[in-house]
Amino acid sequence: MGNYQNMQAANQNTHTVNLRLLHAAIRFNALMLGFTAGTLAAVVIYFATQVSLARWGEFSGNYLGLLAIFFPGYSVSSGGAWVGAFWAFVYAGTISALSYRLYGRVLGTRISDILLSTSPSENPVLKPSVLRLHGVSLGAAIGTMSALCLFFSTTWLVVRGTADESVHAALFSNYIPGYSVSIPGALLGAVELFAMVFVACLILAGVYNKIVESRHQ
Amino acid sequence: MTGLCCCCQGQRHKEMNFLTPPCRFSTAPVRDQDQETFKIMKRAVQDHEILSAVFAKMDVPAMTVAAGVLCSLLLFIATATLLLQTVPEGYPVGPHLATLGHYLPGFEVTWRGACIGALYGFLIGAIGGFMVAVYWNLTHYIALGVMLISSAELAD
To answer: Which among A106, A137, B18, B102 is least buried, having the fewest CB atoms inside 10 angstroms?
Structure first.
C-alpha cells in the first residue's frame, strides 16, 4: 500500500512538471551545444589543414586527406580547409545537438538535480547556478552517438566498396577487439565503443562534479 | 520509446520514458532502482528550476581539469595498449600512433613516450575543456542578451 501511495505521489508531482518548458529547454541547450561543438570542430579542422600545409607543403595530407571519404570536396589545400571546416561544423554540430537531445531525454525531470545552486533564492537567469554533469545520462547519450557514428562510418566504407582497402580504419581493432571493416565487425565495434565511451563519460562527470563541489562548498 | 511497464507484469499499455510516471494501478513490489527514481520524482520540478538548468554555467576550471585528466588517461592507455600487444621481431610498434610525434615533440610508442603523451594529453584536453566551457558560457550569455533585448523591445 505504501508503494501505491509513493507512486500516486510521484504521478501527481510529475504531472506538475511543465513538460513544454522542459522540452523547450532541452531543444535550446541542444542548439547551443551544437553551435559550440560545430564551431570548435570547424576551427580545429581548418587549422589542422593549414598547419599540415605549412609544415609539409606538397607532401602533406597523408592521413588528413582521408577525411575526404566523409567530407565531399575536402582536400589538404587552402580552399579545402574551408570545405573541411564546413563539414566539420555540420557533422560535429549535428552529432552534439543530437547527443544533448538524448542526454536531456534520459535525464528528464532530474534536470534540476544536476544544478549546484549557490543561492537558490537568486534569479536563475541573471545569477545562474553551476552546472553538474549526470555521468550515466552523459555516457548513455555520447556512447550511443559514438556507437552510431562508428557503425555508419564503417557501413559507408563497406557500401562504397573500399572495405578491403581501408587499412587505417582496420587499425581500430588494436583498441576494439573484434572490430573489422564489415557489417558484423561494425556492430561488435559499436557495442564495445559504447561501453568504452560510457566509462570515459563516467570518469569525466565524476572528476568534474568532484571539483565543482569542492570549489563551491 | 515504447516499453514494458515495470509494474504491470509486462503489459505494453502505455508510452514509457523518464518523463512519464509509472502505472498507478499496480501494487507490485517496487525495485530499489524504482524507489530511487520515485525519490527523485517526489519533488515537483518548478519552472524556475528548468530555467536555472537552461542558463546554468559550466565551471571552467573543473571542466578544464576533468577534460585534461580524461585525455591524459586516453593517450596513456592508447600507447600502453600497443606496447602490451605482441609484435613480430623487427616490426615497429604502433607506427601510426607514433606519427603523433610530428605534432607532439618527444612522443613515441614506448613507456617513456606514454608518460610524455599523458602530459601532452592533459595539456590538449585541458585546452579543449577550457574552450568548450568558455564557449558554452559565452553562447548562453549571448543568447540571454538577445532574449532580454527582444523582450524589452516587445515590452515597449
So the answer is: B102
What is the greatest pairwise CA distance in chain B? 79
Q: pLDDT tens digits for B21-74?
A: 444 444 444 445 444 444 444 455 667 777 777 778 899 999 999 999 999 999
Please give the Cα distance from A191 to A193 (Å, whole number): 6
Please give the radius of gyration of chain A, using alpha carbons only, rounded to the nearest integer.
22
- Asked whether the beta carbons of residue A6 and residue B67 sit closer than 8 angstroms, the reply is no
What residue segments make up the domains of chain B, in order of their start? 1-43, 54-155
Nearest to A211 among B50, B62, B73 (CB): B62
The nearest CA of chain B is from the CA of A32 a distance in Å of 7
Distance CA B68, CA A204 (A): 9
**Residue written as cell 592508447?**
B78
Name the residue among B19, B29, B128 with its Cβ closest to that of A3: B29
What CA–CA distance (Å, rounded) separates A7 from A13?
Answer: 10
Between the alpha carbon of residue B94 and those of residues A168, A172, A189, B76, B102, the distances in Å are: 12, 12, 20, 13, 14
pTM: 0.75
Where is B72: in which H helix or E strand? helix B60-84
The domain ranges of chain A are 1-115, 132-217
Question: Nearest CB to A22: which of B50, B70, B96?
Answer: B50
Contact A211 B54 (CB under 8 A): no
Each residue's pLDDT expressed in tens, for chain A with a length of 217 residues: 444 454 444 444 454 567 777 788 888 889 988 988 999 899 999 998 888 888 877 777 777 888 888 899 888 888 889 999 999 999 999 999 999 988 888 887 677 667 665 455 556 566 778 888 989 989 999 999 999 999 999 999 999 888 888 888 888 888 898 899 999 999 999 999 999 999 999 999 999 999 998 988 7
